[in-house]
Automatic annotation (TrEMBL):
<dbReference type="Pfam" id="PF00690">
    <property type="entry name" value="Cation_ATPase_N"/>
</dbReference>
<dbReference type="Pfam" id="PF00122">
    <property type="entry name" value="E1-E2_ATPase"/>
</dbReference>
<feature type="domain" description="P-type ATPase A">
    <location>
        <begin position="210"/>
        <end position="315"/>
    </location>
</feature>
<keyword id="KW-0472">Membrane</keyword>
<dbReference type="GO" id="GO:0019829">
    <property type="term" value="F:ATPase-coupled monoatomic cation transmembrane transporter activity"/>
</dbReference>
<keyword id="KW-0479">Metal-binding</keyword>
<keyword id="KW-0967">Endosome</keyword>
<dbReference type="InterPro" id="IPR018303">
    <property type="entry name" value="ATPase_P-typ_P_site"/>
</dbReference>
<feature type="transmembrane region" description="Helical">
    <location>
        <begin position="835"/>
        <end position="853"/>
    </location>
</feature>
<dbReference type="InterPro" id="IPR006544">
    <property type="entry name" value="P-type_TPase_V"/>
</dbReference>
<dbReference type="InterPro" id="IPR004014">
    <property type="entry name" value="ATPase_P-typ_cation-transptr_N"/>
</dbReference>
<feature type="transmembrane region" description="Helical">
    <location>
        <begin position="154"/>
        <end position="174"/>
    </location>
</feature>
<dbReference type="InterPro" id="IPR059000">
    <property type="entry name" value="ATPase_P-type_domA"/>
</dbReference>
<dbReference type="GO" id="GO:0046872">
    <property type="term" value="F:metal ion binding"/>
</dbReference>
<dbReference type="GO" id="GO:0140358">
    <property type="term" value="F:P-type transmembrane transporter activity"/>
</dbReference>
<feature type="transmembrane region" description="Helical">
    <location>
        <begin position="1021"/>
        <end position="1041"/>
    </location>
</feature>
<keyword id="KW-0547">Nucleotide-binding</keyword>
Length: 1082
């Protein structure tokens, strides 16, 4: 009876459907209303599974699946937990202790809980896709409209709409299917063959069995093969080493060395311990292990819980974009519906007063709804985004969330990582500064002048994570630069020796031959001068250093070498080994923009064995070190960096740097790239070491620093704050209310860890900034995901790091994104306003014709809806962005007064010109109106001719007016297809008005022109006055009223608006005195 409309409404609005059920406690609920972080509701049915006890779970486990994630009810905690959280309490020691694997009963329990290890992207059948496509309110409205037109005998128009709907549905189905197949193929391409797993058995030794990857569960102990293996899940390495290519996830093409997990009581975290974690889908190039032992790894995450699963889920369920434009568009559609109701009321009155048939009353009244609320509106609004996405793809910028392109148009602050983003990945060794007897020696630019036997040279040669792949040395660019500087050589066992490494020196480094001859006595020449790297402690962004344990064949004891951030190394060294001017020398080089690395070492006990080296904790090694010296490196700016920063500044887009590098180095780079200008002052915010009474101090630095004191004015655009990660954490703890004040004045965030980078982005968003973040996708994943516009510089088309991936390996991609974002946003606005006015123009036409006992014909409707409106709406979006960013951002609100007023003026102009044309017709002496006593509406009439042609001109005029170009789009003349369409349609409509041929007049149901009716012919010619005047008025409204500052100021005066709407603007207007500051040094 209701044709399933209530079902469609309930499926579209789950909260309404939830009203059918009664509220109850979570532990007894059968249906859950799940609302995600973005407020999107979903109704899900609870399920029950009977399993044995595990981790305090009862026998009957209650759970639900939501977006490929399983949530299990924990009765003790009285909340739902994900399956990942079941292992979240595992410490490093707990992961290391079980070396026998799971037994069959443990495995079965875990399999029941976690399910199969698979990431499946369902490829639905075309029939299923068709049903899902059709079963929504849009198609219900479309079906309602078609039925109404068929009842009203608009056969031709209804058939055309049906055919177009079928065509668009099939096109959409094919595109959806292709996307599913592409994502499915991407997932399937990284599948592996059988995996060797340890199973605990009653025997003394566990069994090694082969199982399918789909059968793996968290806790399984797997044996990694020697080489060329695609990881089927996330695993943590327990023994040996692995060389892995993670480009499929992070975009980093440099192979990464993964080392065995160290013991400890801390909780395991895949992000914190990523140097020990091998992620699903990544390519394991080869393994390294010692003493004939296998390389073992423990499964920690499977299926969609893996990092690869997160990437797939982010594509399947993209984060909704909360742009005000979309919310406002719904409000405007509601406004149109309100107008439709008013028109329906008038139509009812009109036809009832004429004693019309009930069928005519119902059909004419309902027809108003299909006119005022255009069914093509949702599709038309995506045109601009699709064109922009295609243009971005051509220049190497890929997007997994197209709606975010519109968000790019509103970016207010641009955040950048430093290394690999603003500067090159590679580092150039400038020189080294050895230290001796608490004094720095002279800088050394040629390593051959240093003693090869010195600990300093040997530290540079051994303290790295380099490896050879296919005979080529590769690894971190910093390590490569340091090792190349030493001119030493590195030897590793060949690929055929993956399964077995030498007990003492798995990786060997040795100086060039001419150096060996200098340091080796003839009688000792049989002992080669080589240093074996026994164990690596990889670089940690948290600890900001790395260490190795090494042994020279000429020595009887092992040595630990450490290198890292000078601030961190200083705390690890014995005070008596540090030069007195350590801080002064560090500040000198970092202020000049150099990357400074400190190096230290310590001799280990002669009793310290190879076995001890594999078990020793990192913190034991990284203490009581002897300082060796500093490595001074240059990280040159990318050529494109400074021009891009200049462009952003000119466009009034604030730029900030969020980096893990030294604060003074970051400041220097900021001056070099133009983020800070030469006459700007920078104040470094630091916190005291006292945890009880923490004091915060500002110290002036920068290129403009002088001996004289300055008056600090934080309201000045030339005063900036730089803060490091340690101070940030202390300030958040001591004075959380001070964070917003700090954010609006800070330009440099240095020595920030990955989670702190994400915090900065999130806090900026809370201040109403639209934030973009550009990074290399490695240590910036959290910040890139958190930002409104996250851009990962990566050669891959899709990265787990961000919604945008740029193959352009520099920050010029952000300018392209902002240009396209502004273009897409303005185009969406233009198309929306055009479609709204198109419906209202037709609404006015139909109401006036109803009043005059007339209608539009089938072919007239076809011409307006399919030829004029469709061709113009589609070609409007073809205008590309300009070459330069302008200082003003495009509007974001449709319902703001400054946008509504011009729109209302355009609507009024349309109505007045239609009424004016009718008035001119009524004034003609030869005009005979349609009699009131007609039983059927007359289509072929002068009333129809006048309103049809005038309204056609209005569609073309408004499309042209809303296609204005600069400053957010190219000039209209560059849009050749639109210009051609508009001109062709204008010529054709003029022909229909002035002198249509008889056959065309009959087809379009218009009054034909006859040669002997000169007065009527002149009337047709005079009708051209209305489109001409309308064009002038419409252009004037857009040129002198729309988007004009005077209108905005008038509205603000009328509203008596005294404060800005955005929080960050209100903060900038306040007098920042920073009462939490204790000391200011100038």
């Amino acid at each position: 009876m209701l044709l399933g409309i209530p079902h469609l409404i309930f499926e579209s609005f789950p909260k309404l459907k939830a009203l059918r059920f009664s509220k109850c406690a979570l532990e007894t609920a059968e249906i859950l209303l799940v609302i995600d972080n973005h407020g999107q509701p979903t109704l899900i049915e609870m399920e029950t599974q009977s399993i044995c006890l595990l981790l305090d779970l009862p026998t009957n486990v209650r759970y639900f699946n939501y977006r490929h994630t399983k949530f299990i009810w924990q009765p003790i905690q009285r909340r739902f937990v994900t399956v990942d959280e079941l292992l979240s309490s595992s410490t490093l020691d707990e992961l290391l202790e079980n070396t026998y694997g799971l037994n069959e009963s443990e495995y079965k329990i875990r399999y029941d809980i976690y399910g199969p290890n698979k990431i499946e992207v369902e490829i639905k059948s075309y029939w299923t896709l068709l049903v899902e496509e059709v079963l929504n309110l849009f198609y219900a409205f479309q079906a309602f409209s078609v039925i109404l037109w068929l009842v009203d005998e608009y056969m031709l128009y209804a058939i055309c709409i049906i055919l177009l709907t079928i065509f668009s549905s099939i096109t959409s189905l094919i595109q959806t299917r292709k996307q599913s197949e592409a994502l499915h193929d991407l997932v399937e391409s990284s599948k592996c063959h059988n995996v060797s797993v340890l199973r605990k058995s009653p025997k003394s030794k566990p069994d090694i069995i082969k199982i399918e990857p789909v059968d793996l569960v968290p806790g399984d102990l797997i044996v990694l093969p020697p080489a060329n293996f695609i990881l089927p899940c996330d695993v943590v390495l327990l023994t040996g080493q692995c060389i892995v290519n993670e480009s499929v996830l992070t975009g980093e093409s440099v192979p990464v060395t993964k080392t065995a997990l160290h013991s400890g009581s801390e909780l395991y975290d895949p992000e914190t311990h990523k140097r020990h974690t091998l992620f699903a889908g990544t390519h394991m190039i080869q393994t390294r292990f010692y003493g004939g032992e296998n390389v073992f790894a423990r499964v920690v995450r499977t299926g969609f819980s893996t990092t690869k699963g997160s990437l797939v889920k982010s594509i399947l369920f993209p984060t909704p974009v909360g742009l005000k434009f979309y919310k406002d568009s719904l409000k405007f559609v509601f406004f149109l519906f309100t107008i439709a109701v008013t028109g329906m009321a008038y139509c009812l009155y009109l036809y009832i007063s004429r004693n019309a048939d009930l069928k005519d009353i119902i059909v004419r009244t309902l027809d108003i709804v299909t006119i005022v609320v255009p069914p093509a509106l949702p599709a038309a609004m995506t045109v601009g985004i699709l064109y922009s996405q295609e243009r971005l793809k051509k220049i190497g910028i890929f997007c997994i969330s197209p709606p975010r392109i519109n968000v790019c148009g509103r970016v207010k602050i641009a955040c950048f990582d430093k290394t690999g983003t603003l500067t090159d990945d590679g580092l150039d060794m400038s020189y080294v500064i050895p230290s001796k007897d608490q004094q720095f020696l002279d800088p050394v630019t040629d390593v051959s002048t240093l003693d090869t036997n010195s600990e300093f040279v040997q530290a540079m040669a051994t303290c790295h994570s380099l490896t050879t792949v296919d005979g080529v040395l590769c690894g971190d660019p910093l390590d490569m630069s340091v090792f190349d500087f030493t001119q030493w050589e590195m030897e590793e066992p060949g690929a055929n020796e993956n399964a077995r490494y030498d007990m003492l020196a798995p990786t060997v480094v040795k100086p060039p031959k001419h150096s060996i001859e200098k340091i080796t006595e003839p009688e000792n020449f049989e002992v080669p001068f080589e240093i074996g790297i026994i164990r690596q402690f990889p670089f940690s962004s948290t600890l900001q250093c790395m260490s190795v344990i090494a042994k020279s064949l000429q020595k009887h004891h092992m040595v630990a070498y450490t290198k890292g951030a000078p601030e961190k190394i200083r705390g690890m060294c014995k005070p008596e080994t540090l030069p007195h001017d350590y801080d002064v020398k560090l500040a000198e080089f970092t202020a000049r923009g150099y990357r400074v690395i400190a190096v230290a070492y310590k001799n280990l006990s002669g009793k310290f064995s190879w076995k001890d080296a594999q078990k020793v904790k990192r913190d034991v090694i990284e203490q009581d070190l002897n300082f060796l010296g500093l490595l001074i490196m240059q990280n040159p700016l990318k050529v494109e960096t400074a021009p891009v920063i200049s462009t952003l500044r000119s466009a009034n887009i604030r730029t900030v740097m969020i980096t893990g590098d030294n604060i003074l180095t970051a400041i220097s780079v900021a001056y070099d790239c133009g983020m800070l200008r030469s006459h700007d002052d920078v104040f470094v915010l630091t916190a005291s070491d006292d945890d009880v009474n923490t004091r915060f101090m500002l110290e002036r630095t920068g290129l403009n620093r002088s001996t004289e004191n300055v008056v600090i004015n934080f309201d000045s655009r030339h005063h900036h704050i730089a803060v490091d990660g340690r101070t940030w954490s202390k300030l958040k703890y001591c004075y959380p209310e001070a964070v917003p004040d700090l954010l609006v004045k800070s330009t440099i965030f240095a020595r920030f860890q990955p989670d702190q980078k994400a915090e900065v982005v999130t806090h900026l968003q809370e201040l109403d900034y639209i934030v973009s973040m550009v990074g290399d996708g490695a240590n910036d994943c959290g910040a890139l995901k958190a930002a409104h516009v996250g851009v990962s510089l990566s050669p891959a088309e899709a990265s787990v790091a961000a919604p945008f991936t740029s193959k352009i390996q520099n920050i010029s991609c952000i300018v392209n994104l902002l240009l396209e974002g502004r273009c897409a946003l303005v185009t969406s606005f233009a198309i929306f306003k055009y479609m709204a006015l198109y419906s209202l123009i037709q609404f006015f036409t139909i109401l006036i014709l109803y009043r005059q006992h007339s209608l539009l014909g089938d072919y007239q409707f076809l011409f307006i809806d399919l030829i004029i409106t469709t061709s113009l709406a589609v070609t409007i979006g073809r205008q590309g962005p300009p070459e330069k960013l302008c200082p003003q951002r495009p509007p974001s609100s449709l319902v703001a007064a400054k946008n509504v007023i011009p729109l209302l003026l355009q609507i009024t102009a349309c109505a007045l010109f239609q009424l004016g044309a009718m008035y001119m017709l009524f004034q003609q002496s030869w005009f005979q109106p349609i009699p009131d006593d007609v039983t059927e509406p007359q289509i072929v009439s002068w009333e129809n001719l006048v309103l049809f042609t005038v309204s056609c001109y209005q569609y073309i005029i408004l499309a042209s007016v809303y296609s204005k170009g600069m400053p957010y789009r190219e000039r209209l003349r560059t849009n050749y297809l639109f210009v051609l369409s508009a001109v062709s349609l204008t010529v054709f409509v003029t022909w229909l008005l002035i002198y249509p041929c008889k056959k065309m007049a009959e087809l379009m149901e218009l009054i034909a022109t006859t040669p002997d009716e000169e007065e009527k012919f002149m009337f047709r010619v005079h009708m051209l006055i209305f489109p001409t005047l309308h064009l002038l008025i419409a252009v004037s409204i857009e040129a002198f009223i729309s988007d004009q500052q005077w209108l905005k100021r008038c509205i603000q005066c009328l509203k008596r608006k005294s404060k800005p709407k955005n929080k960050y603007k209100r903060l900038l207007q306040q007098r920042n005195t920073f009462p939490w500051l204790n000391t200011i040094s100038t």
